[in-house]
């Protein structure tokens, strides 16, 4: 059964529209449950050592355990949708599924976004089951998806502007005790990358 194994801590950037994540989001969508200690090793690994921690994490899974990991350092607005959708499903309910969707879209989608969109609908229901007492049915999940799709088509989703990118780079560098010159913003994936020292 699908489950969010870890949801990241994040903080607001600039005027509050965007957030910067400091930990990975870990979402299991198939296979037997993963040992929580293995999940914690990745979830609380130092972001500068994340690639190694991620490889170690993957090496401990069996082939049936299918997981999507959103790396730390994502700059996200979570979901971009018309406010009317909030009436049907609270924005907080789709925050983590939207982060998952934003990470998947440029990495797995081709001409259409159906692969990441299907994950998004399923993840909304999974997240609602985990954090809320009331169930979010398929119809509400599809409404949320349609709201996000409408936001995408109407160009409601923009990448963060230069001010947000610079603030994200400064905060990431400060929180990890490194020079801001080592932190780059990957526009295609809306995430921060630390350059290796020469």
Features:
8 strands, single chain, about 200 residues, globular
Distance between the first and last residues' Cα: 44 Å
Number of helices: 7
Number of domains: 2
Sheet with the most strands?
3 strands, antiparallel
Residue runs with pLDDT of under 50 for 5 or more positions:
none
Radius of gyration, in Å, reads 17 Å
In the sheet with the most strands, the strands line up as 1-4-5
Derived from helix and strand composition plus strand pairing, the structural class reads alpha+beta
Mean pLDDT: 83
Percent helix among the residues? 40-55%
What is the global morphology?
globular
Q: What series of H and E elements makes up the topology?
A: EEEEHHEEHHHHHEE
Strand element count: 8
Describe the structure.
This protein has 198 residues and is an alpha+beta fold. The protein has 2 domains: 117 residues, no CATH class; 71 residues, no CATH class. 45% of the residues lie in helices and 17% in strands. It has 7 helices and 8 strands, in the order ββββααββαααααββ. Helix 4 packs antiparallel against helix 5. It is globular and about 50 Å long.
In short:
The chain has 198 residues and is of the alpha+beta class. It is 45% helix and 17% strand.
Task: List strands and helices in order, with pairings.
Layout (H helix, E strand, L loop, with lengths): L2 E4 L3 E4 L4 E4 L3 E6 L5 H8 L6 H10 L6 E5 L4 E2 L7 H5 L2 H18 L5 H18 L6 H16 L8 H15 L6 E4 L4 E4 L4
Helix pairs in contact: 1-2, 4-5, 5-6
């Amino acid at each position: 059964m699908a489950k969010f194994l870890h949801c990241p801590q994040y903080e607001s950037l600039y005027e509050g529209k965007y957030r910067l994540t400091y930990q990975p989001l870990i979402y299991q969508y198939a296979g037997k449950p993963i040992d929580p200690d293995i999940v914690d090793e990745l979830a609380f690994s130092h972001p500068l050592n994340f690639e190694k921690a991620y490889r170690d994490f993957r090496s401990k899974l069996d082939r049936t355990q299918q997981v999507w990991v959103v790396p730390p350092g994502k700059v996200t607005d979570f979901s971009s949708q018309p406010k009317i959708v909030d009436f049907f499903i609270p924005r907080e309910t789709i925050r983590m599924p939207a982060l998952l969707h934003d990470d998947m879209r440029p990495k797995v989608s081709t001409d259409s976004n159906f692969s990441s969109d299907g994950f998004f609908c399923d993840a909304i229901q999974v997240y609602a089951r985990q954090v809320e007492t009331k169930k979010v049915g398929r119809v509400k999940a599809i409404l949320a998806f349609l709201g996000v799709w409408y936001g995408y088509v109407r160009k409601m989703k923009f990448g963060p502007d230069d001010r947000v990118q610079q603030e994200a780079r400064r905060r990431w560098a400060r929180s990890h005790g490194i020079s801001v010159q080592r932190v780059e913003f990957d526009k295609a994936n809306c995430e921060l990358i630390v350059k290796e020292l020469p």
